[in-house]
Amino acid sequence: MQAPRRIAFINEKGGSAKTTLVTSIGSYLALRMGRRVLAIDMDPQGQLGKVLGVEVRRNRRTAIDLVLDSLLGDPGLDKTPREPGNRPASSLPIVATHIPGLDVVVANKSLALFPQGDTDDDELTSRLDRVLNEAAEINDYDFVLFDAPPSFGPLTLCVLRAAREVVIPVPVTYLALDSCAELMRTIHTVRSHYGNPALQVTMVVPTFYRRTRLAHEILEKLQQRFPKQLSHSVLGYHVKIDEAQSHGLSIFEYAPSDRGARVLAELAEELAQRAPDLETHTDFERHAT
Length: 289
Ligand SMILES: Nc1ncnc2c1ncn2[C@@H]1O[C@H](COP(=O)(O)OP(=O)(O)OP(=O)(O)O)[C@@H](O)[C@H]1O
Ligand SMILES: [Mg+2]
Fold this sequence. Notes:
- The protein has one domain (5-81, 91-288): Rossmann fold.
- Helices cover 39% and strands 12% of the residues.
- It is built from 13 helices and 7 strands.
- The protein has helices at residues 18-31, 47-51, 64-67, 69-72, 122-125, 127-134, 154-162, 176-193, 213-225, 239-246, 251-254, 259-273, 282-288, and strands at residues 5-9, 37-41, 95-96, 102-105, 143-147, 165-171, 200-207.
- The protein has a 7-stranded mixed β-sheet, with helices on both faces.
- β3 (95-96) and β4 (102-105) form a beta hairpin.
- α1 packs across α12 (259-273), α6 (127-134) runs parallel beside α7 (154-162) and α8 (176-193) packs across α13 (282-288).
- Magnesium ion binds next to α1.
């Protein structure tokens, strides 16, 4: 069995469509491509579960169980080693969604209990990676998608250490390039100082694109900086995307023929096709460092 691709959706800029891409791409991979997907919410806002119609409050175990020791030691968690034919309950706080093949680890405000401001604590920020490495059931999945919070801190560092690939949604605005450069420096640090040398940027996705001259210029700059990683499809503003989320449905169920659904489908297919490639990160690094 092959290990799943572990992909973090990150941009420190709030409202850049991270959660939308995780839930939409995850839904498409499961619904239309028959892949097994685990989406993990690492944002205390807890929106990933909400937009997929999962009742967050009723779940006793959430993402905080992945990263806090006291909870990992919970005797309620079945840690029996897996024997063939004798499958223990999951050691991860996984919840099924209404979409077959798409499971989630939801988050809520308790995730904010994770010590903030302590990015130097190596043991703390490597926990998510270690928990996933030790969980045999992670190999049931083809993709693990992480939804990161909008600010850089220990939780984002946890995600970057646990992921092997990064997808960066970039809202096409004047300041977007600044946040990209900052993020590339962070990724570089995670490669060199946090034991994740193969972390790569697989795809850069322009979001909230509008047909203006400024947007066009920004796209050109993104093209220069990320010649291999820039996605072929560009996500504009499509109101059905927002509406679908308010109903707890994926856009592929709510408005499958909407233009937004088509673009998100293209992005999911593109991500599935982009094989991890250790060479792809070098181009941008020259600009970022
Ligand atoms: N292409 C789009 N068209 C219309 N609305 C969108 C689109 N993408 C995202 N939205 C809406 O914009 C808002 C922000 O998107 P989203 O929550 O995915 O961003 P985020 O990067 O996860 O935000 P945060 O940084 O707060 O976690 C949401 O209400 C979402 O429904
Ligand atoms: Mg979000």
